[in-house]
Amino acid sequence: MKIRFSAWEILSRAMVTYFLFASQAFAQHGELKTYAFKQQGYQRQFILYSPRGFEGPQVSLPLVVVLHGGGGTARQMIRLSRSRWNELADEHGFLVVYPNAVDKIWDFGKGAISEALSQRVNDLEYFKSVIARVQSLKNVDSDRIFATGISRGGQASYYLACNLPSKIRAIMPVAMPLPTYLVDECQNGPPIGIAIMNGTEDQQVPYNGGTIVVLGKPRDKVLSTSRTLEIWTRQNRCGGLAFKEERDRVAKDRTSVSIRQWNCDAAPVWLFQINGGGHTWPSGRQYLPVRLVGRTSREVDAAEEGWRFLSQF
Fold this sequence. Notes:
Elements: H1 7-27, E1 31-39, E2 42-50, E3 61-67, H2 74-80, H3 84-92, E4 95-99, H4 112-115, H5 123-137, E5 140-150, H6 152-163, E6 170-174, H7 183-187, E7 193-199, E8 210-214, E9 217-222, H8 225-235, E10 238-247, E11 256-264, E12 269-275, H9 290-293, H10 302-310
Parallel strand pairs: 3-4, 3-5, 5-6, 6-7, 7-12
Antiparallel strand pairs: 1-2, 2-4, 8-9, 10-11, 11-12
């Protein structure tokens, strides 16, 4: 028996559905707030995004630390990723913090870029302070603190994972294999979850390893993406591949993605090889011309795939 509705009934039902979803979307629109504190004589800042609708003394939320690249800022990182981390936080219930570097460059205490800085800061202590301050402001699940970032922000995610393994559960570096100056501490550390998202046509950070070159100037050296994966598949006690997929759905972006996931006993290891991709954030803004930074892939959304990886913890 078919049930028939009048045009008015159909319109009424549609309006109810619209207002229901609209009110939910409004209720879940979170708060973006800047916090400041003094450290080592510097006025340091970070931006915190808190989703609404997930508060409560019994509710502890995961925290994702999203790190901007060299020459960038926290707000530029939000724009680069098209606020996608904030939207996902609204959907799934987690906190997002965007740290800010002094003079737009992270200082890791070693490496060619850090050693050339005229003003030195201890960014490891800064990152510790940011996490501690977010924990003092919000109910954070201390077992689910993650880090991601692009370019030097990707280096910062490795830096956090290998220097604060008791705090950071998993990372997703974008446009960055492991820097050589971090190899010793990373390969001797405990297992940690990692998803790597690198472009094969990155003109600044070579996919196959070598010297980072920015505007014709040599910077630090990095391992190849495959060598970086070797370190983590060994650390995380991984066997063969558990999953692989070739994705090429958007013809006009002139990229494709090879997705690989390994069978691991200790912590998962994933790879998103962006074939034809440049020094860019997948599905983010094309922040500079293709001739300077390469193509931005639309085959995957870096934040969306990042949360899919991180949410398994």
